[in-house]
Amino acid sequence: MNNGDGLSLGAQASTVLVDTSLLIEQQKGEAHSSPVRRALERFTFRGISSYSKLEYKRAWLQRIGYLHTLSRKPGVDTVGKILDQINRLIPVGHQRRRIQTCLSVVSKYLDMPCPSLSAKAQMVRLQGFLKHAVLAATEALRQMSTGEFRGTGCIRAEELPEEKTDGSLDITIRRCKPENIRCSVHEFFEDNRASFEKIKLAISNAPNPSSELKRTMDHISLAQVTPTHLCDDRHCSKISDAIIAVDGKEMSVFAANNDAEWRLMASAMGKPLLNPMTGQTHLP
Amino acid sequence: MQLALTALASTALEMWESASIASRWHQDILAAFENAVRQSSDAGKVSMDQLAGFREALNDLASDSLVKANAEVVRAQFVRLGFSAIPYGSQIEPHDE
What we know:
The structure holds 2 protein chains of 2 kinds. By secondary structure, chain A is an alpha/beta fold. Chain A is built from 12 helices and 8 strands. Chain A has a 6-stranded mixed sheet. A two-stranded antiparallel sheet of chain A has the order 4-5. In chain A, α3 (about 50-70) crosses α5 (about 95-110), α4 (about 80-90) runs antiparallel to α5 and α8 (about 195-205) packs antiparallel against α9. The termini of chain A are close together. Chain B is an all-alpha fold. Chain B is about 65% helix and about 0% strand. Chain B has helices spanning about 1-15, 15-20, 25-45, 50-60, 70-80. In chain B, α1 runs antiparallel to α3 (about 25-45) and α3 (about 25-45) runs antiparallel to α4 (about 50-60). The radius of gyration of chain B is 14 Å and the shape is globular. The chains are: A alpha/beta, B mainly alpha. The interface between A and B is large, with 52 and 42 residues.
């Protein structure tokens, strides 16, 4: 392991695979985004997997977009009424808590003293911020990479958030079923069978793999028997890190901030892992 | 500088009253502008390029008539100038379910 912003990688390390986690970090506040941008800017080619675009959208743009949708419903004219909608429409559970947390964080961010602002203006401001967050993050996705790998031909990754003519946002992520195959993830798996086997082996040899890694191993095993197993969106998402790693395996360096999964992915692909948040580089 | 940025953030906030009855493109640009100014104010610094971006956004806001492209250009420019889309996002735990 080396410290110091990954400077030990050498001059030949000019290409990097940027994981979804770092695409997200770059859209947070400066404390999160600056170290990532600094670490990545020295790479002449910053590649992302198209699968990361899907994750980026699913990880949080959908939640913010959902709040935007609720805020535009007739009769919803205060933050309290958005909360009522969340409680009415979303069953008790993780999803409801996540959306409530999201709303509370956004409201807190917007909470500047301005008694003269009417309730209507405050609501328009909230809608404006939510919409800006989704559309600016989408624009940022276009600017953050210099190239994209489309090994899986994931059509859902191409469905980026869009503003409709009535001002609403479309952040739908459609479902995929094996009965109606619309991508080439199964062919991608066949073409890269050896790489997926390496990842599976690395997980099985890991002393204490995370539950996410164990799940990845299980679904790789199922795909080894029937590759079209992955043509169900509930299954391909279980091996998302492995798909991204294999998609970008021609890159000289992998970069991510979730060491628990990515140290293993990078090691299995024989790549150094740069974590800009800790400034550490893990050699394979 | 900090004082000026704080004042600019307050001005942006007060502009929402008139923006609430303006076009949605005005609202889009004001949201992008306030988001950027807030980040500069929080950081206590702003670059010359970023200041130029603020100026352009304010010029647009002063226009009576705007179209979607105006809002898209301002949004893309603020992203290019290094402003985060979701600065409060560090408190939102991303998930992948």
